[in-house]
Amino acid sequence: MTAKEKAKELVEKFRVEVKDMMMHGDGEDEIFYAKRCALICVDEILESHYKVLIGVMPKVYNYWKEVEQEINEL
């Protein structure tokens, strides 16, 4: 799965959850909060696995950094 596809997948998963919790708002609000949730998720992955990813599997680390960038561009 490409970083762009993963970014879209994460945002869409969180969008469904955000939509269920929101009483008011529109699609833009859903996307905004879904992106924030997805970025938190990616940040947790990067922080909790930084030493392993950067030292042993830099390709995986770079993949998640790219996912983070793609989420920001959505």
Write structural notes for this entry.
By secondary structure, the protein is mostly helical. 85% of the residues lie in helices and 0% in strands. The protein is built from 4 helices and no strands. Helix 1 (3-21) crosses helix 2, helix 1 (3-21) crosses helix 4 (58-73) and helix 2 packs antiparallel against helix 4. The chain starts with a helix and ends with a helix.
Distance linking N and C termini: 17 Å
Please state roughly what percent of the residues sit in beta strands, choosing from under 5%, 5-15%, 15-25%, 25-35%, 35-45% or over 45%: under 5%
Strand-pairing-aware structural class: mainly alpha
Mean pLDDT: 89
By DSSP (H or I, 4+ residues per run), the number of helices equals 4
- SSE sequence, one letter per element: HHHH
**Residue runs with pLDDT of under 50 for 5 or more positions:** none
Q: Tell me the total number of β-strands.
A: 0
* Silhouette: elongated
Quick one: biggest sheet?
none
Rg from alpha-carbon coordinates: 13 Å
Helix content estimate: over 70%
